[in-house]
Amino acid sequence: MSGGYRGMGKALERKISREQIEEALRKRYSPWMYEKIANGSVAVAGLGGLGSQIALMLARTGVGELFLVDFDRVELSNLNRQAYGLSHLGQPKTLALAGMLQNINPYLNVKVMEGKVTAENAGELFCSYPIVCEAFDKPAEKAMLVNAVLEQCPKTIVVSGNGMAGYGSSNKIITQKKMGRLYVCGDGETEVGAGTCLVSPRVMACAAHQANMAVRLLLGEDGV
Predict the structure, then answer these.
(1) pTM (2 decimals)?
(2) Distances (CA, A) of 80 to 72, 178, 186, 201
(3) Can you tell me the distance from the alpha carbon of 122 to that of 110, in angstroms, rounded to the nearest whole number?
(4) What is the reported pLDDT for 42?
(5) Closest CA to 90 of 70, 73, 69
(6) Alpha carbon of 122 to those of 128, 178, 183, 208: distances in Å?
(7) Which of 42, 112, 179, 210 gives 20 to 30 Å between its CA and that of 217?
(8) pLDDT single digits (tens) 19-32
(9) Could you tell me which of 136, 47, 42, 27 has the C-alpha nearest to residue 100?
(10) Which residues contact 71 (CB under 8 A, 6 or more apart)?
């Protein structure tokens, strides 16, 4: 099931108004940029090292609606690269992350779906979103989502992550436009394997590429 999540209490909303948050964001952008971003929507599929950081960056940027999809719960081993903290252990990643986003801006429209994405439900989940940030762990799942969205959602653009493991140079992480509606961020080759681990800085560098590409697309830029 998907639905809105408003996890922050009324006390916080009384302290900081919607208007105050909007004004703070407006000071950072030109009027047309603010309107494009504030009225934008992005789906994030997978809320691990890539997805959790992508969602936080988009929330801080002021993207008006975020749709978070994951089936997993927060584990201690996640904390070396994912956005969560000890207080989130055992929680569904969807709800833990939604709470973090609402702590940044309680007026964001944050929707969640706790469950697995399949080729059968991908279209129903994502076709109403102009941009999907793919942030799965396994290559087969990545390929499934990319193919399903491109085939079933003719107006949706996919921003995928591929190749961010290890501690190699972050300068090798780039954004490439592979086809009209597919962008791939990463070095394209360094995957998790024997002797190659996931380290926070390089994962976050790839997540930043994905978040930045999503923002560029919301602003009408389609080049890399």
Answers:
(1) 0.91
(2) 16, 30, 19, 10
(3) 19
(4) 98
(5) 73
(6) 11, 21, 18, 24
(7) 112
(8) 999 999 999 999 99
(9) 47
(10) 114, 115, 116
